Amino acid sequence: PDVHREDAESDWSADSWSDYGSRDKPGTTLGRTVPDGNVLFPDIFHTDHLLFYERFRAYQDYILADCKASEVKQFIAEYLGKVLEPSGWQAIWRTDVFEVLVGVVGVNFSALKAVVQLSEPFLCESQDGSFTLECMQELLELKEHQILLQELWVVYDESGEFDQTALAIEHVRFFYRCIWRTWDEEEEDEFDYFVRCVEPRLRLHYDVLEHRVPSGLVVDYQNLLSQCEELYEKFLIVRNSISSSDSDSEAENISMVEGLKLYDKVEHLKQKLKLIENPLLRYVFGYQKYGSLQAKGLRPTGAKVTHVVPWTMTANLLHLLARDKLCPESCEGLEVQFHRDPLAAVNACYEGDRVIICPGHYVVDGVFCIADSVELEGYGLPDDVVIEKQGKGDNFFDCTGANIKISNLKLVQHDAVEGILNVHHGKTTLENCVLQCETTGITVRTSAELLMKNSDLYGAKGAGVEIYPGSACTLLHNGIHHCKEGILVKNFLDEDYEAPKITMVNNMIHNNEGYGVVLVRPVMASEMKDASAQGTKGIFLFLKETPKTSKSSIPRFLDCIIHNLYLKLVAAGDETACAEGSRQEQPGCVTDELELYKRAETSEQTENNSEIANVLGATSAKKRQMHKKRLSELGFTEADDNLMSQEMFVSVEGNQFKWNGKGSFGIFLF
């Protein structure tokens, strides 16, 4: 009973920090794995398969808690002192060059190192076989027999006595491999290190493992991380050379300037890394992916081919195709090719070809890469011609052709990482289509153009349509609904980008989780000052909410009813007469109020359209002012009209915004 009481009173009892049991329970609860290689090393604990929540819980509750960046090593040392067996266990010491079996005889907790000696018999494996017993003994003597804990893999033991030791070392190893950055120690100490750095990096790691991040973005992140580490090392060398010298020489001044430049570059890369690490911002800002698709051009013969994809071909269907699509007037010189699936047909296309897909449900495993000007058309209604994506992958449709047209199709996306359709270059027309999305919907990249009309888009976990700076997007008579956001217009205030051209006419944007339309732009200097005065720090998020139909029009309608009933009561003078009069006039009253409601709703939708157009136009004007100021600083007092014609073309008319979770229009400032 005394032992159990002590365990209950201690926050660091063996059960309290791990889901894998404790030393009090007989036998291990961890798996084992056989080391690779030719040497017969003993089995080791299998600990690298931990789930996200297991690592999250360990770092948040028991290892780092609310420590600051400068306290990380101290907190880890305290944690290890409470759970690590100080001696009596074996491990495989692994480096990039060799592996050797060692026995642990002590632990230097403050240095996060183990005191080891070579095990008997001597077991070692190296790339060139040059590490003998004498070499390893000399190496250990140079290291004073102390090696980093994260370089040790604990040898398997069935008793369960070393479970906590194996898990603790795994947490330390994972932390320094995947979470810790060499510059973290210089982070400001007023921030919680776990919240600011550990959690977003941990989530990113598991999002990558589970294929929830585009492969291109993963490559970008790794490249940025490598660049940042390289520049930070150079910065440290320059900074140390300055701090070790007291002279005010020209060489030191040059070093200071070089150090400042390196510091700015490092900070810029760190901000890019933080954007990707943040699960929201990585999709808000995305990454500049270049569609490196090569157009085939015209056929060597100069002929244009019509490709037909039949689910099943019957004589009647062939007759209808010939009448409606293949030979409406003349069949002379027409070349027709038949394919078994839409992807094969698109891959066989050259410039000017046409693909006709017959009714059916087509399941494809691949990406539609359209680099030439081709037309992809469903023969029938969209619900009759369905193309479904099978298998995990980044993209579904990648468009870079000068003039692509897709019509009368239903596109269904599953297990996706990127959007359902990406327009990288050229113009893509989407007409009379249904798009069932998985992540984001349609992305219109810089310098690309999209014309989407009479189509229906839904189900995106991001924005239904993402509009990049320098692009052109025309949306006519579409439905965009049940997405995270309806339409997202990305930052175009950067000096490298032109304002986009946006036309939105008679679209129905409804039932989205967030806003109908969101504008993303940076915080201006004046806004930054206001935020600083209020004590706001970090990334700024201001959302400007317009009235929502579901919460504003109905109360307005009820207010009208109450007001008119009140006037009727006053005019009648008698409660009974008023009641009778109100009952007699009820049909007319309700008709009047419904008319008022309709007018109020129409007025509100007009206000929503006007507000979106005004805010986008004002932001475009700000862009023009910034551009003019830059030209003035460069000495250009009179700018060419074409150079200054960067104002956004905005036409927002007749759109309806209903039942969007946060409202019709929002602004995201970063």
From TrEMBL:
Superkingdom in the source lineage: Eukaryota
Entry-linked Pfam families: Beta_helix, SHCBP_N
Domain spans labelled SHC SH2: 54-282
A GO BP entry: fibroblast growth factor receptor signaling pathway
Compartmental location: Cytoplasm, Cytoskeleton, Spindle; Midbody
Annotated region (Disordered), positions in chain: 1-20
Keyword set, alphabetical order: Acetylation, Cytoplasm, Cytoskeleton, Phosphoprotein, Repeat
InterPro entries tied to this protein: Beta_helix, PbH1, Pectin_lyas_fold, Pectin_lyase_fold/virulence, SHCBP-like_N, SHCBP1-like
Coiled coil: none
TM region positions: none
GO cellular component term of the entry, any: midbody
Right handed beta helix domain location: 416-519
Function description: May play a role in signaling pathways governing cellular proliferation, cell growth and differentiation. May be a component of a novel signaling pathway downstream of Shc. Acts as a positive regulator of FGF signaling in neural progenitor cells.
Record's subunit section: Interacts directly with isoform p52shc of SHC1 via its SH2 domain. Interacts with TRIM71; leading to enhanced SHCBP1 protein stability. Interacts with both members of the centralspindlin complex, KIF23 and RACGAP1.
Name of the protein this chain belongs to: SHC SH2 domain-binding protein 1
Organism listed in the record: Chaetorhynchus papuensis
